[in-house]
Amino acid sequence: MTVEAGARRAREGVVRTWLPPAGASLAWVVLYLANGPTWHWVLFHAAGLSPDSRLGETIRFFAFDMTKILLLLTGIVFVVTVLRSFLSIERTRQLLGGRREGLANVAAAALGVATPFCSCSAVPAFIGFVSAGVPLGVTLSFLIASPLVNEVALVLLYGMFGWRIALLYAAAGLLIAVAAGFVLGRLQLERWVEPFVFETRVGAAETGTLLRWRDRIEIGRDEVAKTVRKILPYLAIGIGVGALIHGWVPESFFARYAGPDNPFAVPFAVLLGVPLYSNAAGVLPLVEALYAKGLGTGTLLAFMMAVVGLSLPETILLRRVLKPRLIATFITVVAVGILTVGYLFNAVL
Prior knowledge:
Layout: H1 3-46, H2 54-84, H3 89-96, H4 103-114, H5 122-131, H6 136-148, H7 151-161, H8 163-186, H9 195-199, H10 213-248, H11 251-257, H12 265-273, H13 280-292, H14 297-309, H15 312-318, H16 324-348
Helix pairs in contact: 1-2, 2-7, 2-10, 4-6, 4-8, 5-6, 6-8, 7-8, 7-13, 8-16, 10-13, 12-14, 13-14, 14-16
């Protein structure tokens, strides 16, 4: 092969690698900017609905939010997945192994934000971390922060409510993860962990496979497709309920029963959020609708944290490695943290 042919093939490879994501990025920006005006024209001009009617506003809320959240979700998941391809789970475990509690809880919570864990991976993550020498409290800080404060939640919160609410949520979630993990670690609860966890032996951390950019882009694309398929039903349900609340439920109802002046609003929101099987993307449309009805910021944050941080499926899965007493203690400590955040923000905001 001549030098010129090799250079031409290299250029063609670069074009094949970067042209599709560049075109997809341009299409994403156009669709995002056109979302509001397009649905306004379709519903209130082409379809003839009245923008002042309950039906028109309900349909507009559903169509606009479904499109907006799907666009945000696909963009965030793709970018985050590509970035995460540089940080393996084994490397994360290595960074935390052998560290003491305290600052290690802070490091674990921060790593939990950037590392791809969900309820389905809670058990293997727990076994891997504890068996590698990561203290129990530090491991729990990681497992609390990972679903509670993630990039998808923060970017969606920013897109729907602005940077102030997003930063409040991030700070409160990290504080809960650090404090809860530290408290649970101080209680010396290792006796309530199933014995086989400590008997498991793990190998040395992997150095990771050197991936090409084409591979990383393909991984990101596949993750977007898998994520959208997985949460689309829950997203549609969440947006549908939010649209009905937004269009039909009067503000006086929530102001009376779940407003910031009601002392039982926060614990009710937490109890309501625990059994819901959803994630940040699925629950945010409902949070947005409740926010528009005047619910307290603390109540809304507590509700969202309960949904993603005290997930019932994750709790059931953790029973494989934790005894009931530790699960109950874990839920109690995290719930107290969420309640504290809810009452605090309702008092100061």
